Amino acid sequence: TGAISSLQRQMEIQESELRRIKSEKDLLQKQLREREIQLQAVSDKFCSLTEEQRQGEFVAMVEEENRSLHQIVTEQESQLSEQSKFINELQTTINRLRAEVVNARLHILEQKQTQKEIQSLADTLQHKALQTRMALEHITCKFERYRNKIIQATFSVEGSQDPPGELTDNDLLEAMQKIINERTEFQQRLKNRSSK
Fold first, then answer.
1. Extents of the domains making up the chain
2. Coarse DSSP helix, strand, coil percentages of the chain, rounded to the nearest 5 percent
3. Of 20, 34, 94, 180, which residue is 20 to 30 A from 105 by alpha carbon distance?
């Protein structure tokens, strides 16, 4: 935004300069037209003189004024040419600054769009994280209930002793494995006895 404001200020300065130069150019063109009219009037006046009047001081004065007017016209034409060149350069600069402003605005719009997409993605990820956390809590709760049931079933078997203090998962697995082994052995003895 700062870059755009700076470019716009530069563009306004260049446009103000362009208006000033155009005004000067119009003034020079007006002066040039006036000088051309004067020159034409002097030429007409010179042409209307009689042969005798063309000689002497008046002829010299008219020719001097004619040369002076020609020089002024040439200088003003040169100034007009320089002013036109400068105007073209200013117009090129203004067009470049306008293009830079447009590009900067497009860049800002792209950044806003990217920011909006990132925010949308962040919201989606946050929502998924919340869902995952809730699912994890639910699974953890179910696992604890299931574990408590296993502990209860394992240590409620006849002849088993209550667990000493806090029970680890390995302790629980060993106790379950012991019960399984005992039952397997008992079933095996029953099969042997029935076969006899």
1. 1-158
2. 90, 0, 10
3. 20
